[in-house]
C-alpha cells in the first residue's frame, strides 16, 4: 500500500523484512497487521477518530506500542489502510457508471448505469460494513489529522457524483438542475441511507435499497415524458401565464 508521498503505508521495518512469501515471517506480519487494524477499526467506530490514541489501539490489540510503528507510520496511515478496499470499490463503481452514462441515449440505459453503481455500493457495504460506517461517521468532520484520508475520499466521491450527473445532463436525460446541486444531493441521500442501515434503523430490507434508491432519485431528477411544450416549460422557456 502506498501513501500520498509515494512511500509504502506499512512501517519501515515491515518493508525491509517482509519475509518469504507464504513463510512464517510474512504470515506473522499479516496477522499482526490485521490485529492492529481490527482493534483500531472497532475503537474508531465506537469513539470516533479523534478520541482514539495509538496507546488505545495497541492495548486493544494486546501488543507493545513499538510494534505499531513497525507496521504503520502513524494513525493517518492506518486509516488509509482501512479505507483502501472500500475506496477501490466505490471509485471503480463511480467510474464505470460515468463511462456507461457517456454512452447512454435513453432513460432505461441511464437507469441501468445507476443501478450498476448502486450494486457496487451495496457490495462494499456488505463486505466492509465497519469501514463504511467509519467513513460515513467521519466524512463531514474537519480534514485534519487522521481524518484527512476520510475527507480526501469524500471529495473524490463528490467529484465523481457531480461528473456523473453532468454526463447525464449532456444527453438531456435529467432535469436542468445544476449538477453540483443534484449530484451532491444524491450523495447526501445515499450516505444517510447507508448510515441508517449500519445503525440498524428500521428501513426495511437493505438488499432492496439499491433499486428503491435508484428509482426514487431518478424519478425525481429525470426529464418527464412530455411533449415539446412541456419540455420548454421545464427548461424555463415559453410564455408565462
TrEMBL record:
Record keyword Transcription regulation present: yes
Protein name, entry field: TetR family transcriptional regulator
Lineage: Bacteria, Pseudomonadati, Myxococcota, Myxococcia, Myxococcales
SUPFAM superfamilies: Homeodomain-like, Tetracyclin repressor-like, C-terminal domain
Annotated Pfam families: TetR_N
DNA-binding region: 53-72
GO molecular function: DNA-binding transcription factor activity; transcription cis-regulatory region binding
Biased segments, Basic and acidic residues type: 13-32
Signal peptide: none
Organism: Myxococcus stipitatus (strain DSM 14675 / JCM 12634 / Mx s8)
Assigned keywords, A-Z: DNA-binding, Transcription, Transcription regulation
Amino acid at each position: 500500500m502506498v501513501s500520498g508521498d509515494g512511500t509504502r503505508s506499512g512501517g519501515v521495518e515491515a518493508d525491509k523484512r517482509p519475509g518469504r512469501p507464504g513463510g512464517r515471517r510474512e504470515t506473522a506480519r499479516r496477522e499482526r497487521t490485521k490485529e492492529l487494524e481490527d482493534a483500531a477499526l472497532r475503537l474508531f467506530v465506537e469513539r470516533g477518530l479523534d478520541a482514539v490514541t495509538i496507546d488505545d489501539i495497541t492495548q486493544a490489540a494486546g501488543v507493545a506500542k513499538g510494534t505499531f510503528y513497525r507496521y504503520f507510520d502513524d494513525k493517518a496511515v492506518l486509516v488509509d489502510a482501512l479505507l483502501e478496499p472500500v475506496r477501490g470499490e466505490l471509485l471503480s463503481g463511480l467510474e464505470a457508471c460515468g463511462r456507461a452514462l457517456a454512452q447512454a441515449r435513453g432513460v432505461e440505459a441511464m437507469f441501468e448505469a445507476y443501478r450498476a453503481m448502486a450494486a457496487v455500493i451495496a457490495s462494499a457495504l456488505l463486505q466492509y460494513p465497519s469501514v463504511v460506517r467509519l467513513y460515513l461517521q467521519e466524512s463531514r468532520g474537519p480534514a485534519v489529522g487522521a481524518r484527512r484520508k476520510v475527507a480526501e475520499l469524500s471529495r473524490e466521491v463528490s467529484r465523481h457524483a457531480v461528473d456523473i450527473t453532468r454526463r447525464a445532463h449532456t444527453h438531456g436525460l435529467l432535469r436542468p438542475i445544476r449538477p453540483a446541486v443534484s449530484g451532491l444531493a444524491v450523495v447526501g441521500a445515499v450516505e444517510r441511507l447507508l448510515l441508517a442501515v449500519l445503525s440498524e434503523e428500521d428501513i426495511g430490507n437493505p438488499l432492496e435499497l439499491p433499486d428503491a434508491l435508484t428509482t426514487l432519485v431518478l424519478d425525481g431528477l429525470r426529464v418527464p415524458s412530455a411533449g415539446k411544450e412541456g419540455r420548454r416549460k421545464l427548461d424555463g422557456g415559453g410564455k408565462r401565464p
